[in-house]
Amino acid sequence: MPWILGSFSLLALVVAGGYWVLLRQYRQHWTRLPGWSVPTDFTPTTSISVLVPARNEAGQIEACLQRLCEQDYPPELLDIIVIDDHSTDATPALVKKIAATQPSVRLLHLADYLHDNKGIAFKKAAITYGIEASQGELIVCTDADCLTPTGWLRLIASCYQEQQPACICGPVNIYGERNILERFQALDFMGMMLITGAGIQAGDQHLANGANLAYPRTVFQEVGGFTGADHLASGDDILLVHKIATRYPGRVVFLKNPAATVLTPGQPTLSAFFQQRLRWATKNSYYPQQPHITLALALVLVHCWLILVSAALLPFMPSWFAGIFLLQYAAKAYADFRLQQQATRFFGRKDLLAWFIPTQWMHTLYIAVIGFLAIFIKRYTWKGRPVK
Question: To which H or E segment does residue 264 belong?
Answer without folding.
Answer: strand 262-265
